Amino acid sequence: xxxxxxxxxxxxxxxxxxIVIQDAQKPRDGVSVxxxxxxxxxxxxxxxxxxxEERAKYWLSxxxxxxxxxxxxxxxxxxxxxxxxxxx
Length: 88
Hints:
Blueprint: E1 2-11, E2 14-23, E3 34-39, E4 49-51, H1 53-61, E5 65-66, H2 68-77
Parallel strand pairs: 1-5
Antiparallel strand pairs: 1-2, 2-3, 3-4
């Protein structure tokens, strides 16, 4: 199964995450199929999530399952996850 999940980068107490497409059996920081965005929890509210929505929609259409945290990030950007458009 293919998952859309977060891959942790950054240093101690300065987290930085990439939103990646990855096989569910691979380790969290292992090899990913594709990187579709990034998440900076320390940055300003409007600059925390950067996402390539076209690629995210493509991977959702072919059956990739987002983790709960990635679903929340998708809701923040207004991307439809369960078939409904999320309004800000």
